[in-house]
Specification:
This protein is an alpha+beta fold. It folds into 2 domains: about 90 residues, no CATH class; about 140 residues, 3-Layer(aba) Sandwich (YojJ-like (1). It contains 11 helices and 7 strands. A 7-stranded mixed β-sheet has the order 2-4-3-1-5-6-7. A hairpin with a 2-residue loop joins strand 6 and strand 7. Helix 3 packs antiparallel against helix 4.
Length: about 280
């Protein structure tokens, strides 16, 4: 019996119920494998494949004790994989819901924030900004003044010129260009009171940026530099421009189209420019 005939004979015993079960377990194994592959700290996928290979080889070579133990302890092994993969699991559970930032950008809100950061540095003022991306942080923050206002020049003028913002607390903004709250603080914190120590915020920042995709920026007026915390990484003594590049990369900030001064956007050649100037 050749291979083709053997496969036809084997497939003749399959029913639609068998196909559904094979599809179900195949999708389950594939989803679990892709979930393990996302962990960049621990590469657990080869260990999963190795365990499956040992189980299949023991069954093929008729080793009943190993086969029995492999199938018997498979739930325990799966739980061990989940526990070893706990960083990703905790990241998915710390924010009970994800938010989808709105896609409209009528103005370059990040440039407005950076401009006021530079202004604050020149005026020897500090600032602590919490930038929320897709992981919702509302259940983990205490906010003195809740807002849902677009980031504009007028909004920042109101906050800083009228001294509504306390530099010892966080200014909570979202990556869709809105201000969520003024004078925010973590409900669970290493420092329950305000950040009286200039470096006290780092303890909380390292924890919350590891478990969420948020970013925290602090201005250091003493040396005109910034400190940025993201993904559990702390970058110190960097310029505002370098901080802007990190933020744009982290939140995948859209590139604003460049418009040449004096010409309509989209007019590129000399002929069209002359046609614009013609009466």
């Amino acid at each position: 019996m050749d291979f083709y005939t053997f496969m036809q004979w084997q497939l003749s015993f399959l029913t639609w119920r068998d196909c559904i079960e094979v599809l179900f377990f195949s999708c389950t194994v594939y989803s679990f494998s892709t979930w393990l592959k996302k962990d960049t700290e621990k590469n657990l996928l080869p260990y999963l494949y190795g365990y499956c290979l040992v189980t299949l080889c023991s069954y093929y070579f008729q080793l009943p004790t190993i086969t029995y133990c492999a199938f018997l302890f498979s739930p325990v092994v799966i739980m061990l994989f989940i526990l070893l993969h706990q960083e990703t699991l905790q990241r998915n559970l710390i924010a009970l819901k994800n938010i989808s930032p709105l896609n409209y950008h009528p103005h370059d809100w990040l440039e407005t924030v950076l401009r006021h950061m530079l202004k604050a540095l020149n005026e020897k003022k500090t600032m602590l900004i919490l930038l929320e991306h897709t992981d919702s942080l509302s259940s983990y923050l205490e906010v003195a003044y809740s807002l849902d206002a677009r980031i504009t020049e007028g909004t920042f003028h109101l906050l800083f010129e009228k001294e509504l913002y306390d530099p010892m607390s966080m200014l909570w903004i979202r990556s869709d260009g809105t201000i969520r709250g003024i004078n925010s603080a973590w409900k669970t914190s290493w420092h329950p009171s305000q950040y009286t120590n200039p470096r006290a915020w780092i303890d909380d920042a390292m924890v919350y940026t590891t478990k969420t995709d948020s970013t925290i920026i602090q201005l250091n007026p003493a040396d005109h530099s910034c400190t940025v915390a993201y993904n559990g990484i702390l970058r110190e003594k960097i310029s505002v421009e370098q901080a802007a590049q990190l933020i744009k990369k982290h939140i995948e900030y859209p590139i604003q189209p460049h418009v040449k001064k004096g010409y309509e956007y989209g007019v590129t050649n000399q002929k069209d420019r002359m046609a614009q100037r013609a009466p």
